Amino acid sequence: MTMTAGSGDPLVTAAVVGGGPSVQIRDLTVAYRIAGRDMAAVAGIDLELPPGSITGLVGESGSGKSTLALALLGAVQKPGRITTGSIEIDGVGDVVTLAPKAVRKARGAQIGYVFQAAQNSLNPLKTVGRQLLDLAKSHDVDDKQSLVRQAKSLLERMGLDAGRMLDAYQHELSGGMRQRVGIMFALVLNAHLLVLDEPTTALDMISQANILSIIRDVSTDRALTTLVVTHDIGVVAEVSERIAVMYGGRLVEQGPTTQVLRDPKHPYTRGLIRAIPRLHGDPALAQALPGRPPTLGTTPETGCVFRERCDVFARLQLPACVETDPRPTPIDGDRLVSCHAVASEHQQADREARA
Amino acid sequence: MPKAVRQLAGHLLRGLVMVWIVTTFTFVLVHEMPGNPVQAQYESLIEKGFSPDAASRQVAVTYGFVPHGSLWSQYGHYLSRLLHFDLGKSVSAQGVSVAKEVASAAKWTIGLVLAGVVLSFALGVVLGVVAAMRRNSRLGDGLSIAGSLLHGVPQYVMALVLVTLLTVKWPLFSTGDVNGLIQPGFNVAYIASIISHAVLPATAFALSSFGGYLLTMKSSVVSVLGDDFILAAELRGLSPGLVFRYISRNAILPLFTVLALSFGFMFGGAVFIESAFNYPGMGALLVSSIGQRDYSEMSGAFLLITVAVILANIVADLLYTVVDPRVRRASGT
User: Fold this and answer.
1) What is the mean pLDDT of chain A?
2) What are the tens digits of pLDDT across the range B88-125?
3) A123–B246: do the CB atoms touch at under 8 Å?
4) What ipTM was predicted for this assembly?
5) A104: which chain B residues are within 8 Å (Cβ-Cβ)?
6) What CATH fold (topology level) applies to the domain A3-258?
7) Whole-number mean pLDDT of chain B?
8) Contact: B237, A105; criterion CB under 8 Å
9) Which residues of chain B neighbour A127 with C-beta distances below 8 Å?
10) What per-residue string of b and e applies to A1-22 under the rule 16 or more CB within 10 Å gives b?
11) Domains in chain B, start-ordered, CATH in brackets?
């Protein structure tokens, strides 16, 4: 099935959209065992990726977003491991409890993963075409010719000279080309879940725009469920329908992109958006968030992980912020915010509305 | 493939230049040797009653250059003889040409060095991969420690230990001279003989040098394991066998450089190992020629070792071009 055929087949799209969530993460905790102590890089994450949607996962480096992305493929790197929770992926099952071989088979086939562009995600000693055949061998694809045809149509679709690409070694490709070849590898076996880790970092502006439009088009064409992991809110605003904000291993806020960006609720999200320089107006209006993000060792054991940098906590000093980790509270229907101050404000507003 | 031919030609040209430099060096060495062996032989021949002319000719036959005349004419004479593969005559075995002596010794040494290099390379690479994969376990640590310890033991000590243990204490092998009646060449008797006589020296080579490969391979594998393309291959669902091949092929690349350098090291080590095992190769030839102040034989052996090392380097370079597309496609464009 080529991409154009996929887009021309409304039944396929409808069938995918009709089901439950494509990915359902429940209470996921990933801990790294360092010096005999488990340190949580990702803690108590609940996240749903609706089928056919693009979700942007944003956070600073060290916020646990890449760990979360790797967990989706059952590929948390040692000494890390998933300690609690489940990751239910449509058509695959619970990645946490699945046998290693089944997880291996799901990678590439059902779940496509695209690396950061600057990283070298190809074997430097083999041509792209040879690596495509390795992929075929690993996934027991018998019809290699149609796989090559599929790869070529994907590459051409992304504006590349497919024949040249398959004959090329990694060092002969530019960053933008590598990234598109990476997307081809992620999708050539018809994965329905696409995870992109910093897809545009280290690309020039033109290539960035190009890759983003490719991600958007491909996701729509193939009705993919897509997760874009990035530190760049601009990227999220550009491509994603939903946004999930991570801080210190927690999901602090999630909801539809436009709503969250227009009216951020969590103090961290507000700070993050304030920190973006604007094209118009005074660049000095962009304010850096004071303080530093926590590392594995400095994450507070109890209470809210953000309170040390939180302007609301500085003002109100709520005891709950010190005592308990805030749980996600539904707000305005589709949004979830993990903040004691926002939750109590919301309850108050609710009570007033009822009274 | 004109590019490959051009490349080969370039390698050979550079090799020739190196050989020329070394021959010049040997010439100067013999010429400037304290005690002036050329002059000494000339004088001893005069004492034996040779006419000055005859003595001069005899010396020229031995060393490849006449005892008198300007430095340049001596040098020119020497080079022109070399171009005819004439290395002069042996002093200790009068009348035998050095070229013949060296060639027959080389046949034994080349087999030994090749066996030693291949054995130590294979041993080091395999154990290095194991050490890298099991680097957090006792096995990995043990292999690394054994590798560096053995690497630290000089070759001749290793040779003496093996001789003591396996021929004296538990006489599994004989240290007797290689049967002189066997014709070196591609025949069963010769190969059998080289195997039975070369096992211990080759083992000594391998044991004292696989540690270097082991440690290099281990660190190379560990660094490749951390490379993004390995994680990317795993995330693409590549089978463990293929991922392992990706790792090993990339990790082995830096070892080719070490391999090329080790040939020279091996030939050098042959001097000690061969004399410890009484093995009739280049090392033994060099030692005996040094003992008898046989300068013509010495310089002949020296020259052959140099040529062998240079050839090994060229082969390693070409090999590198074959295995690494980055080198292959970058050169010549």
Assistant:
1) 87
2) 777 666 667 888 888 888 888 888 888 888 889 999 99
3) yes
4) 0.85
5) 234, 237, 239-240
6) Rossmann fold (3.40.50)
7) 80
8) yes
9) 325
10) ebbeebbeeeebbeebeeeebb
11) 99-293 (1.10.3720.10)
